Amino acid sequence: MFNGTISEDISHFNLLMYLDLSENNLTGHIPRSISSLRNLNFLFLYNNMITGFIPPEIGNCSSLVEIRLQHNFISGNLPSEICELHGLKVFHTFNNQIEGHLPQCIERMQSLEELALYNNRLTGSIPFGISNLTNLTFLSLAHNDLSGAIPSDLGKNNLPGLVKLDLTGNRLDGRIPSGICAGDRLVVLALGNNNFNSSFPKEITECKSLNRLILRDNFLQGSIPDDIEKNSSISYFDIRGNLLEGRIPIRFGFWRNLSMMDLSDNKFSGSMPKEFGNLQNLQVLRISSNRLTGEIPWELTHCQKLTELDLSMNNLSGRLPPGILSSFTMKIIRLQENKFNSVIPESFSSSQTLQELQLGKNMLEGPIPCGLTKIQHFSSVLNLSMNKLSGEIPKCLSNLDKLEILDISSNGFSGEIPSEVNNMVSLSFVNISFNLLSGKIPGSWEKILDSHPGSSLGNPELCLISTESTNCGKRDRKSHARAKILAGIIAPVLLLAFLLAAVYILLIRVQNSSLADQSLLHSLSRTEDLPEDLNFEDILHATERWSDKYVIGRGKHGTVYRTQSVRTRKNWAVKKVDLSETKISMEMRTLSLIRHRNVVRMEGYSIRNGYGYIVTDYMPGGTLHELVHREKPRMALNWETRFRIALGIAQGLSYLHHDCVPKIIHRDIKSNNILMDSELEPKIGDFGTAKMDSDIDESSTVSEIVGTLGYIAPENAYTTRLTEKCDVYSYGVILLELLSRKLPVDPSFEEGLDIASWVRKNSQSNYSDFLSCFDEEIQSWDSEEQRKALDLMDIAIKCTEFMADSRPSMREVVGSLVRCPENVDRLRKRLFSSSPMSANTESNHGIFPGSESYKKIGE
Asked: How far apart (Å, rounded) are the C-alpha atoms in residues 84 and 67?
């Protein structure tokens, strides 16, 4: 692997035909002298750390056939001189920082077959002349900031025809051109996350070659015509998150190649077509968050390859079809928030692949069948909450020894909890609240319930030692007291031993890491790309060589200083990182991919003598933590300010999770990492622990818990699998901070409570107690503004649900915030009734998984 820069002396190799310097640690610019390489056919510089712009002189390399510059830090505009490369067939420059408009002269590049410029910062419209590139087969401009309409003739003049078109994640609008598949070779059409607002493009489904159609998260409206193409070849069909309505066309049931269909988050009504039973290759079917009625058609049992079925948040009713529940291939079943009113069938015993079963908030009756507990690989979630189930908790439940999450809250279970449940050794969360349980809690469950306040409430006859319940015998309490005394003696000794061992291991790791990285640090001893008005000497001068009085922030991943340009007097922020302790390349690469008003953007960097320096805009408003928790002077925060902050953070996170390629998971969202500009517009910062989707696969794990106490999602305690829902949880904590002006772990809370569990506990008593969760300023607002604050609190509660799958996505949160809340009075009455709580009263259920208020998010 090579380090350093590409020398200007490369011009001496004027007979060179093939130059491949990819996948190294090269820095610096592409030399202008490359123009001398008139015989060069292939230029491969991808996967480096190259900065600067594409030199206009590249237009002199007239023999070029392929250019691959992806995965660098290249910026600036695309030079118009590139249009002189008439023999160029492949131009890949994705995952860089290229700005400006696509050159209008691009239509002169008649040999071009592949154009991949996704994940840059391109603006403006798509040039109409791109339609005249007759040999173009692959076009990807995804995840830029392009606007306007797709050229109406795109696809019509391309012979033999487009094969893949990906324009995902822009601001394109208007209609989808009808001739886009004119050559009948189009395999992939991805237009998701744009602003298309026309009706569903029926003619696209008539494209015989089309395999993947992705139109998710647009504003497509109206109904899908009943006479849609019957024999479509589409196998992957995603129209989630639009405004489509009416009945689901029967003809979908004849798309025999279909393996994945997602119709979620629309307004489809009526019953599910029984013709779906014809889909022999269907593996994933998602129709959640619609308005479907009727029963699940029994014909769906013919889909023998189905692994995931999500029909949650509809108005489906009737009995649970045994055939679907006993499928040999099913892994995930989500039927929560419907109106199913049967018993749970015994037929689960024949399903050995099921990992997650969500049946919460229905009207199911009867006991928990033992057939359900015979599933050997049931390893994730069993949610039976908020039904009408009854009887005792069966001993056979202990067979689910791989299950991680169990929620049977808000039912009518009675009797004692069998001691056999101690065999459920994988459980990390149990919710048995609001039942009629009695007696002692088995030891393993007691530990879990103690760590999650509220998960055992509403069982008057249950022995709760942690609350000194009168249902517990005196002898048991004395034994418990002795155990607590013994624990108080032993715990400090064990803690000291643990700390000493941890320090020793840390010293060994640092020593080994330092030795291993010496050669790398030497090779990166000095390279930089700073803003035009700032040089390194300015930084040293303005900070008086890193004086503490210029420090504006400290964290696990470096210290941030305020600095200033000598020439323009503009303030900047510079983060100083010791490269022997922290890898800066990940944070640099992450920041280089980001272009959003609510995310801090890297404006330059420098690597010198073992230290890395990241330059960003200076944020005069400080951090959100300072704004919310500063005592003197305490700044008033009206509704508009709080809402703007909440929306800005949500939009930034939604961008990271849904619009970046690859997707970015921050993993340390907290109020100290939200920076405020002069107008109190929030910006997400500090990407030292961030992970990209390209670094994550389904089996990917991390070796340590990252994040900050009080903001860390509960699942981080029992799984190391990466998911963006940990950011959603942290965002919910920030909303609670913003509304209560209390710390995530506040000294005023009872022992063992954090801000999320504190709010839940107060919400379970009465409305006046819940209103005390808001700070004094909100309590003095008029009723209309308090209604708005209540709705924001509802979103915060949803975001801090214990089960990650029960939390909304950040895109759904943004959708909820930008739309006016509906039925606030009804929600307020149901969630926070001042009447005494009862296990059978619906007003208790608002903050539990699957509550009605959850449907507001994303509607």
From this structure: 14
Q: Which residue has the tokens 């959708």?
A: 815
Q: Are residues 773 and 811 in the same domain?
A: yes
Report yes or no on 730 lying in a domain.
Answer: yes
Quick check: is 763 in a domain? yes
Q: Looking at the annotation, which residues are catalytic?
A: 668
Instruction: Single out the residue in 577, 593, 617 at which a domain terminates.
Output: 617
Record the tokens describing residue 811, joined without a space: 């895109």
Residues 303-341: tens digit of each pLDDT: 989 999 999 999 999 998 887 776 778 899 999 999 999
How many separate domains does the chain show?
A: 3
Residue range(s) defining the domain that contains residue 605: 522-617
C-beta separation of 728 from 809 below 8 A: yes
> Which residue type occupies 52?
G
Could you tell me the pTM of the whole model?
0.66
Half-sphere exposure (Cβ direction) of 428: Cα atoms closer than 13 Å: 14
Beta strands in 113-262 (DSSP E): 114-116, 121-122, 138-140, 147-148, 164-166, 171-172, 188-190, 212-214, 221-223, 236-238, 243-247, 260-262
Q: Are residues 533 and 563 in the same domain?
A: yes
Give domain status of residue 364, yes or no.
no
Task: Tell me the three-class secondary structure of 610-661, residue by residue.
Answer: CEEEEEEECCCCCEHHHHHHCCCCCCCCCHHHHHHHHHHHHHHHHHHHHHCC
Same domain, 551 and 498: no
Domain final residue, candidates 553, 586, 617: 617
Q: Which value, in Å, is the radius of gyration of the alpha carbons in the chain?
A: 30
Calculate helix-pair angle for 725-740, 755-763, nearest 10 degrees: 70
Tokens linked to 553: 């922030």
Cα 468 to chain centroid distance, Å, stands at: 41
Query: Is the pLDDT reported for residue 825 higher than 60?
Result: no
What the block records as the tokens of 219 is: 């504003």
In a domain, 721, yes or no: yes
Handedness of CA 223, 226, 227, 230 (dihedral sign): positive
| CA dist., res. 205 & res. 230, Å (int) | 9
Encoding tokens for residue 547? Answer: 């004086």
Rounded CA gap, 692 and 650, in Å? 19
Element (H, E) at 582: none
What does the pLDDT look like over 518-566, one tens digit per residue?
433 333 344 677 888 888 888 898 888 998 888 888 876 788 999 988 8
| CATH number, domain containing residue 585 | 3.30.200.20
Q: Is 402 marked as a binding-site residue?
A: no
Please give the single-letter amino acid code of residue 279. Answer: L
All residues at 6 or more sequence positions from 29 whose CB lies less than 8 Å from its CB, including other chains: 5, 6, 50, 51, 52, 53, 55
